[in-house]
Amino acid sequence: MKEMTSAQVRQMWLDFWQTKAHAIEPSANLIPVNDPTLLWINSGVATLKKYFDGSVIPENPRIANAQKAIRTNDIENVGKTARHHTMFEMLGNFSIGDYFREQAIKWAFELLTSPQWFDLPKDKLYMTYYPDDKESYNCWLACGVDPSHLIPLEENFWEIGAGPSGPDTEIFFDRGADFDPDNMGIRLLEEDIENDRYIEIWNIVLSQYNADPDLPRSEYQELPNKNIDTGMGLERMVAILQGAKTNFETDLFLPLIREVENISGKSYDPNGDNMSFKVIADHIRSLTFAVCDGALPGNEGRGYVLRRLLRRAVMHGRRLGIKEPFLYRLVPIVGRIMTSYYPEILEKHAFIEKIVKREEETFARTIDAGTVHLEQVLSQLKNAGENRLDGQAIFKLYDTYGFPVELTEELAEDQGFTIDHKGFQAAMKEQQERARAGAVKGGSMGMQNETLAGIVEPSVFDYDKEQLSASLSVLLVGNERAASTGEVQAVLVFDRTPFYAEMGGQVADRGVIKNEQGEILARVTDVQRAPNGQPLHTADVFSELSVGQTYRLEIDHERRYRVMTNHTATHLLHAALHNVLGDHARQAGSLNEMEFLRFDFTHFEAVTAEQLRQIEEEVNQQIWQALEVKTIETDLDTAKSMGALALFGEKYGKKVRVVTIGDYSVELCGGTHLKNTAEIGIFKIIKEEGIGSGTRRILAVTGREAFSAYRETEDTLKNIAAAVKSPQLKDVTNRVVSLQEQLRQLQKENAELKEKAAAEQAAAVFADVKETNGISYIAAQVQAADAAALRSFADNWKQQDYSDVLVLAATIGEKVSVLAASKTQAVHAGNLIKQLAPIVAGRGGGKPAMAMAGGSDPSAISALLAAVAEKL
Predict the structure, then answer these.
(1) Which fold has domain 450-555?
(2) What is the CATH number of domain 768-871?
(3) Residue 651, pLDDT above cutoff 70
């Protein structure tokens, strides 16, 4: 067995599969693209779904990768076990309709046991398999595996809803009796018991059925193309090859743990309780990679996950005695550990450190605010003679204030309180059930479409033509091939086409299909890409079309031109965002329509009005400079050497198109563009808003829409000028400011007059004091604008010793408001108002000192006032 670094393990995996003619897929961004069923990329296969469900046919059906992934469904186990992580790397090899069971198992055994490769002892390997999968059992036997090392398990069947599914076979490494304190031996595997002896290192999924939740497994249909989907945990494999007790004693984590030792002054004991060291080392990896890929801490979705990870790591830092921000200091260490395969971490380390440190500082303020609130809660409980902190109170601090449960318990116990653990767990469970009920359902792959996957006829998109003659090579009606069709909606493939298929944020072209005489035979309403890449034209057919015939294809010129205008402006906007906000402002989605452009980008706060003005001016400067827009086709490496910026979520082939705009912008882009920026005319930002944690959106318009937006603003300004009687537009601002000042002065004078009138009215009212049954009282009808004015009367009455009781009534609109106030315990204002309110067809109530009521009969106010003496 070889001793290897983590970088060597990863590279050996990739090298092996290259010898088996596999294409090496780069590790994709952790943020899923066009997949709302996933919060994070959580496996090696997650980015390859489109290949497995047949929506896209890969250039090479054999694929291997080392994919970074995040899973947080069992976050509480991180640090407690030897193997749980939130961020991990999954090494995978995949076959899309190519090799299957026999080769997958044979190659797996070769990679694990061959002296040329990992050279693991054969007698240390055990395999589990699905009991009905005798073929896999026989394949392992053919490799020379002892039958006693083959364990049947019912759980070895992979399916996550409708779509590809099948049996799987898992490979385990036996670390020996030292990791089996109860000496249970092979029972640990046979009974599927969680243990540290038999470590699962590889799972081979044999995807051969289309799962149907309405059918028993025995009736699942065979897939037209069988697939192989495997996964090996890098961290586990490294731990085995480095002879580590846990994954944390490997070169993937130890440098982080050593730095935490330096910061905390505490020592990491491999045989002791090191949960805090492990949690910190694990969580900072997730934070670093996620922020690098464009995610930012926030209050929902991905942002909430990151905030929770950071706060959990900070609290474990406090357990080690670390009070100041420290996680950000670990970011460059993560970068150095991973630099061989993920150099972008060190390239962006300054930005990642900034985000992590800022979030640490924010959390420190949260802890301070939460401590104040907790002290108030504990003080109230003490005053009430309570010594137990209720679970709901703990949960509220955790859920509303973000206050860590561990800190709540620690502070409460220090003051002698017992903790309602069960109540907190119950509240947490309720929250989790609510979250599950609102979660996005799904995650399975789509069903394979054999008809679309079977389209192999070539089709070339011509960037430079807006109309051309082409031969109809494929005609689909109702997902079935046809030789010809009449009036129906059909899907068409031509040997060449001027129609752009929707991709990269640019909407599809529309247009018509004509015969040689110029008659319109069909109207193209949409264009998408087939699994093998051909443009699929969805068309409403008016007259017969036949395969093999030549037709005239014409796109809607105006639509294409206006879409191109917005697309070219999008490139300028992207560059301006980098210049004004920073390189972290990366594209997270876009849409280029006829009427507008929409651009989503990563940024950690709202863009200020001044920044938006800078961005808008910078884009317009490039338009006015009439920069030439050039497009060249080259290989990916050359494009990168040119400084070309790859767009978020795009996959690029061997040949790529590079769009350059003067010396201002260089991007990889497969879309269509103008020849010169001057054609854009003008660019205007309409709106900037947040659409999720760490993601902002700009909506902008160009050309005629931008002109219309400016004209609309001008018309609004003219209307304001007319309303404020300002003959010159340039004087409108001064005129409005002047009017505001006049209004403020008049409001001040009006308030003073009201106050004077109210004081005069109050003096008259408070002078009319009556007495009954030894209680002095004032009962009067007053003029009041609202109920607040009545309360002002009462406030003035309280300041002086006018009477024991006050009753006021006022007509407000068509209703009656009544107020009762009392300074004596002999009269309860709330009870008094309840007796008086029915007289004016109303009801009310309140406290002993003051109460109010509303009524609908103003004519009865005199009767109400006369009844006060009787009620008293």
Answers:
(1) Elongation Factor Tu (Ef-tu); domain 3 (2.40.30)
(2) 3.10.310.40
(3) no
